[in-house]
Amino acid sequence: MAKILFKYIWVAFLLTQSCTTTIQPRPNTVTVEGQAAINKSMPLLARKQALQDAIRQASMQSSINIHGQTFANQNNISIDAVSMRTAAAVSNTKVLKEWTTDNIYHVVAMVDLVADNSCTPHQRKRIIATAFPLIKQEQVTAYESQDLTGGIPRELNNHLIESGDFIGSNATNINLYPRPDLAPEIQDRAAYRPSKVMQIATSNGTQLVLSGVIRDLEVESTEYMSGAGPLAFARSLAREVVARRGIGIDIYVHDGFTGALLFQQRYTDSVIGDVWVPATYTVGSERFNSTSTGEKIAKIINQASSDIRQTLSCYPFTTRIVEIKDDKVFIDAGAQERLNVGDQLVVYSTGGDDLNIDGGLSFIGRDKQPAGVLTIMTVMPRYSIGRLEAPARDLGVRIGDWVKSW
């Protein structure tokens, strides 16, 4: 009898454990063929494009929802359109067969896709934080902390750095939005000049630009105060102890390569009680987080950090060419960005006179086209050296051009 009872208890225990087990999504494996034209005798570039075409074909054949768009120019499939717009996460890709016929590169690949739109980043992306201006400066009194416009982006940037997916720097003295109420629109645009986002990214050697605005920190009393006399005076004093404060923060991330807005999210909350933040408190400090308003802002920073990481996890890594010597191409990324010998990056060149070699800036209207594949030969802590399939001069590749992982 005891043995039978033990068996029932053991079965019940196993059933309980199975109910609490987290089931990981299984990859959906498909075998597909991708194609790309071989231009300028550059098979490595065509191979990468054919592999991206195979991934797109795999996404379309699977049950995973995909929002895709393909652009073609002389049978050359655009790399960016595929990599940036697919909702499928590629957990593994294995090339089974590859060959060329009639100047077309063919790749047969086995692709594992999972129903999860997050990826494990291979390289660390550089991001720079700019100021979060207040839309209404009067919502923060002179007796409160003046660290919000610089402290919130600084602390958010620190969270991104601590995640291990980003290399961050701070330029919280720079305000992208002269009219914060119109953000994320940047008003000081000029024709035939790069956007302010692109200028900041180029001058600071970063791929991404973090910005935002503080839309709401208004304090209002929980009591309606009107009239004169002792009662009205008492109510006005109560406002200093018990009040309601709204919190609204907009956060944006732009791509320094194109100036495109990649991330936009509004975070709102409210607090009731002692809503004031003393002037000596800095964002991220223990004392700041111990206040009601500081605690809510800290939660917004934590959530925004998680959202940015998830949104940009599949986004390609980008850096710039800083020097060209003979057949050696030096790029502004190395071991700290997790580059390895043998990595292959696609070089994007303007190939025209609009490139300002001194500043490394290119005009907005100038198209950047994939010019070749750079194979990394040497990796140093802050930079790497690679070789192109053909001489840089023949490909129109110059100092200041961009290289991307896809």
From TrEMBL:
- Domain (Flagellar assembly protein T N-terminal) spans 29-114
What sequence ranges are listed for the domain Flagellar assembly protein T middle? 119-275
**Pfam families attached to this UniProt entry:** FlgT_M, FlgT_N
> Which residue spans adopt a coiled-coil conformation according to this UniProt entry?
none
InterPro entries of this UniProt entry? FlgT_M (IPR032386), FlgT_N (IPR032370), FlgT_N_sf (IPR038180)
The leader peptide range reads none
Q: What is this protein called?
A: Flagellar assembly protein T middle domain-containing protein
| UniProt source species | Candidatus Methylobacter oryzae
Where is the organism placed in the taxonomic lineage, from the top? Answer: Bacteria, Pseudomonadati, Pseudomonadota, Gammaproteobacteria, Methylococcales
